[in-house]
Amino acid sequence: MDARSPTSDAAPAERRHDPMGFREFVGMIAGLMALNALAIDIMLPALAQIGIALGVQDENTRQVVLSAYLVGFGTGQLLIGSVSDRFGRRSVLIAGLAVYVAAALLCAAAPSFGLLLLGRLVQGLASAAPRVVTTSVVRDCYAGRNMASVMSLAMTVFMAVPVLAPSVGQFIILFASWRAIFAFLTLYGIVMLAWVAARLPETLPPGERRSISPRQVVAAYAEVLGTGRTLGYALAGGTMFGSMFGFLVSSQQIFTGIFGLGAYFSLAFACVALAMSASSFLNSRLVGHYGMRRLSHGAVALFALLSTAMALLAWTGHLSFPPFMLLLGGMMFLIGMVFSNFNALAMEPQGHLAGTAASVIGSVSTLVGATVGYAIGQAYDGTLIPLATGYILLSLLTLAILSVTERGRLF
Fold it and tell me: What range(s) does the Major facilitator superfamily (MFS) profile domain occupy (predicted)?
């Protein structure tokens, strides 16, 4: 159905993103979401060069360049939603993008590993604004399955970033130092800042804004966290994100250290990311027919089966490159069926608290995912056993969380 059809339940709210049409709106949302994926994935080929340049010899310690960003990203989301509920989406988003650009410049000039981590932390804090505000803007304009469809379409475009970002990073460091990567992130941030300033209207009318007095903020957070479906799907999203992040932080070591791919690392990573992108696109086509629960719950169950197969092969020493790529690609495909649906299910009861809810959901899922993903990455010992074992545990934990959230009525 056309997004502007009078019979679409999104049509009245969609006027809130005029003068942008539907396609430009989805493109902007995808571009803003891509800030985070780009800031993480483009770094992967440069971790070794950063470690050498700044005197960090331990490969697992170099992973903190990614983890510091995610800690800031998860923490920053706790406040952004309330602020955007009070002052509106547009001004908060513009301020966040401006700080993102400044932090990227700081990283580009960092003379030490500690200062680089500080810049990454601030960059993550700033990137919380586009993450929370874009979700809130979509919730301002759409609801239910229409919201899930918009998020899935945006995710389809957004997921092209993990496919391309490592190759872009690899290309940059062929001709320049790792600092040029942060210059590239600075330029991307400036482009998005200009686009938002020129085209995005305010989607939260003054009459729908909320006070940010301490009492009301605490009450809003308590209401969001007290909603079983919201908290449950935020936690489930976090455990599934942890499985993806566990692979992400150790992917360079796995592909170059275990399988010896060298410069072909970015190509292998792109194949895995492409599976996620394809599944996000497929989800946008299927969610209206099958529903969010059936698709996402089924994806988690299949993920558990594939992770069991991977773990058995890893434990017995038979996990060579072809079966690893097939299993990993299948699992990342399934993860792509989860994120937009889990987020929409968590947000659905929170239309009156969209900004605060987006903050809480994003913060919980990111911090949980960063914590368990960091644990998987730090457990890397030159084998695939930590990754495969972590996948089994996380998939079973996710199913348990979903079962409690839905009171045993899965699918």
Answer: 25-406
pTM for the whole thing? 0.82
Query: Which tokens in the block code for residue 327?
Result: 């299993």
Residue labelled with tokens 């919380």: 128
Q: For position 9, what pLDDT does the model report? A: 40
Write the pLDDT tens digit of every residue in 320-362. 999 999 999 999 999 888 887 898 889 888 777 776 787 888 8
Spatial distance between the Cα atoms of 383 and 147, rounded to a whole number of angstroms: 41
The answer to whether residues 62 and 110 touch, using CB atoms and an 8 Å cutoff, is no
Radius of gyration of the chain (CA): 20
Cβ neighbours around 337 below 10 Å, total: 26
Domains and CATH numbers, the chain: 11-405 (1.20.1250.20)
From CA 71, how far away is CA 48, in angstroms rounded?
21
Scored b (16 or more CB within 10 A) or e, 116-140 reads bbbbbbbbbbbbbbbbbbbbbbbbb
Torsion of CA 262, 387, 156, 75, to 10 degrees: -110
Tell me: the pLDDT tens digits for 177-192?
999 999 999 999 999 9
Q: Count CB atoms within 10 A of the CB of residue 169.
A: 24
Q: Which of 43, 10, 172, 171 is nearest to 119 (CA)?
A: 43
Using left for φ > 0, alpha for ψ between -120 and 50, and beta otherwise, residue 38 falls in alpha
Strand, helix or coil for residue 242: helix
8 Å CB contact between 153 and 252: no
Predicted local distance difference test score (pLDDT) of residue 157: 66
Residue ranges in the chain modelled with pLDDT below 70: 1-16, 144-145, 148, 155-159, 355
Residue 173 neighbours by CB under 8 Å, 6+ apart? 45, 46, 49, 180, 181
Say which amino acid occupies 46. Answer: A
Q: Which of 363, 78, 82, 74 is nearest to 214 (CA)?
A: 82
